[in-house]
Fold:
Amino acid sequence: MTTTAIRKKPNKVLLLDRNKCISCAGCVGTCPDLALDMFGLDLQVFQDKCTYCTICVRFCPVGALAIEKIPEKTVP
Amino acid sequence: MKSAKYDVVVIGAGPSGSICARNLARSGYSVLLCEKRPVVGVPVRCGEATGPVKRLSDFMTVNEAYIETRFTGVILNGPRGISVRYDADKELGVMLDRKLFDQDLANQAVREGAELQVDARVTALSSANGHRSLTIEQAGQTFDVEAAMVVGSDGAESLSGRWVGLKTRQLPPLTCTAIELRVKAEDPNPNHLTFWQGHDTINKGYIWVFPKVKSRVVNLGSGELVPKMGSRNMYDLSMEYKNKLYPDAEIEEVHGGCVPVSGNLEEYTADRFLLSGDAAHHTNPLTGGGIMAAIVAAETAAKWIDKGFRDGNLSHAFLKQYELECWNRFGRNHRKEARYRDFVLGLGPKHQETFYRIFRSMVAGNLSLSARAIGFARLGVLAARNPGLTRKAFFKS
Structure:
């Protein structure tokens, strides 16, 4: 049986480069959806909360965050 | 947690939180100071320059151990190689070792009887009948704590304010992104703070070199208002300056963060809750410095909370008086400086050059009465030639 999707599955993803991240937590304060949080010195990204508004990407002083499109094929 | 009920819970053991906890504990309240990081003061996320010892000692006993440099001058490099050098005959401020500074303040709070818990994250904050209840996570365990009053001093990325419904989010363009390299080098001007600003280098922010003499390092950093579109990699910019100024020096540490430069928030209190320090955007919008304002705000907060407990009234309306006192003590000045900033940053390349020339001649005249009078008259002409910008910067409601 098929069900209709309530929410379209996003074809984007917020990527975090852990080698570049300096744990400054600046992005946490700018995110409107609380999709980022610091655990100790570790930045965590909650993909389900992210709305891909790019504020954190513009904000990151080291360029560790990026939003990228997932190629069509991988979206089920 | 030693108990499940406290008079006051302070979230964040930075300068603001520690001073607030210390003053409240001294007045005899049971205080819990929660720090989410495993060690207080690490990592440092600050340029570490602040006001002179004389002002700091109004609020605390200053320990020589964390005073790195007592600077007496400022060098401001503007566009087209215009350099403004100001030498004062007194101490303008100090460079701190923020790690030791934060730890000393937290120690002072503990000595007065506050309970400090590190690695303790506050994960939820809710309002209940006559108190606030918090959920604190520590080492995999969850604790429920009741508090009559909660102080949020959890820095620029404050979440506690957002749980209560305050608008603490950093909104571009009134927030700065900054990065700082700690370079093992000695600056040729050890008693001066050096800045670069202007259309030639970085217009919507500045690059800084703050020497820390005692530990023989230099804080080199750059900060910029977050642009509406696109972004510049501040790390690359800082590295460019590092390679230019200290080509062979080793980088000890890289740190960064966000600086709220919007001026005081419109509202940062609620029932049994208030924000202080960076969380309430208590940062100088011109320089980005926030240690002094955070300390003043913390002292004010402690005073009003004490008064609130005595009157048995910790309502939003009562705590509004804390906002008002913060406004009178530094908020009004911050708004004024934000206006100057908007004016200088809005000038075009040619007029910005004129501005720096005027500024240089004022400083060259040793800021005497006549030099200032002539300078301000010339600035008036400059303002009259940019009517739109002047209106936007100074006469916006």
Notes: The two ends of chain B are 47 Å apart (CA to CA). The CA atoms of residues 24 and 302 of chain B lie 6 Å apart. The mean pLDDT of chain B is 91.
